[in-house]
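#structure-requests
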Amino acid sequence: MLQVKNFSKIALCAVLLLAAGCKEEQPVDPYVTPGNTPNPNWVITGDNDMTASMTAIVKVSFASQPGTLAAFIGNDCCGIAEYKADYGLYWLYISPVKEGGGNVRLRFYSPSLKRIYDAKSTFPFRNDTLLGTLAAPHTPQWTVAK
C-alpha cells in the first residue's frame, strides 16, 4: 500500500512538472499580433493632370491609431491619403504616373501593428471619378502583406 501511495505522488508530481514546463505556443494572428515591419514612408512617384478621388474608411482589427493609406498602380505610388480625425476617414487623391492609368491597389500601413495590409481587390483607374462618399465611404477588405 505504501508503494502505491508513493507511486501516485511521484506520478502526480511528474504530471505537474511536465504541465508547468510545457507552455503551449499561441499562434501569431497577423491582424492582432504586432509585426516588425518599419514604416515604408511611401512617396508619390509621379503626378499628372488625371486624378480620381476616394473617401475611405479603414477597418483593421486592433489598430489603435491611424496609419497610412496609399494607392499603387503596379509598383508606382500614385496617392497617399490624408486622415481626417474629425470624420475618422481617409481622403485620397489618385494620380497615375503613366497616361491611361491601370488597376489601383490600396495598401495600408498600421504603425501600431507594424504591418502592411493589401486590399483584397483592385479597381480600374478612371479619370475624374469619385469612389466613396462621406455618407457611404469605400471600405476595402484587407489581407496581410508583411
